[in-house]
Amino acid sequence: MNDENNLSSVFDKDIESFEAAASGGAGDANKRSGEADVDLDAKMEAAIANAQGTRPKLALPNYSAKDYFLNGTWDEHQKEFQKTKPIYTGFAEMDAIQPLYAGFYVLGAMSSIGKTTFLHQMGDQIAEQGTPVLYFSFEQTAHEMFAKSISRRIRIAKDDPNHAAYHLYTAIGIRSGVANNTQELAEQIDAYTQAVEDRMHVIECNMYTTVEDIFEVIDAFMETSKEKPVVIVDYLQVIYPTEVNGRVDTDQRFNTDHIVTALKQYQKDHGLVVFAICSLNRTNYTAPVDMESFKESSKIEYCADTVIGLNFALIFDKDFETKKVGKSNKDTSVTDKRVMLALAKKASVRDIILKTVKNRSGCASYSVYFQYEAAYDYFSKGSPIAYAIHKKQLEEEATAERDGSLSVDLVSDDSDDDTDD
Predict the structure, then answer these.
(1) Which of 252, 337, 358, 394 is least crowded, fewest Cβ atoms below 10 Å from its Cβ?
(2) Contact, 321 vs 331, CB < 8 A?
(3) Which pTM does this prediction carry?
């Protein structure tokens, strides 16, 4: 941005000087006009050359195959890459398929499916294994995020027979003081801080934080720590647009494209793992996440190394698309789909399928089942069997709603897809 402002400043200053020369002075008007025309052309060329001289020179590496392999560059790059160990998410089913390598990852999902929770839990799990994590949070405070961590740890600990007597607390319950002075809270805060130490960082962004501001924080962290962090940005569409020549473009798609491109280039330059959450095109709420869902930025399709969708498991169920009516199958109405999704959102345990939409490295497409306990900000291992059990309950509730004995709020196109925790 500074280079663009410098370019504009230099150019404007030179333009002002030759405009003054062209319009001022005494003497014959025609003569002055002719001289000014010649002078104008020359000064225009000089101003442009001067302004262009302020742009950073970009040296693009040019490798011939012969030189690349014979002059040691190949060996150098091999050693550099192999020094980088894979990073494990802490989700065993994902890690068994493919751990994380340097790249730009984009996660998309509809509302109430746990986008923030999923990446925040993953960040905690990565930090516990020794890799620093920088979580850039635009909508939630550090207080909110760390309360989620403690709520989740208490929930996980309760599965241990040694902590079977634990009471469970939501993040809002913890923040409001319900768990004050409890054994659960004291023990799990201590366990959490020992597990992540100073490796889990929540950076509270404001609504005027730009992508360049994010880069400055990462640069400062790497300079101080001499470590490469995993970066999580929550989320793309609320990053403040970058000013160009003193103005902000009002085109949301243009701004998002710039942010996506900048994140990818920064990730590539520094060899980092960078995750970004992306909101979805609301017309795709009743279908599995695919590239069409990311219409707000065409750059995601080209810049992201891996694109991941979180979906309610029922969306992949054949009964979601058609239902048995007598002896024939009938397409499920949009209203019925919304009823089923609304019920899935209300469930205390939500069956989620993570599915890759694009993956440059490794398996092109894979799916992983999860169970999401929204009350305790917790993702755990899921399975088709667990989904089948919950599906029966959903079907019974959907039937009750159609019969009028149960009322639910339908999933609408106006629902806020960025409030999920």
Answers:
(1) 252
(2) yes
(3) 0.80
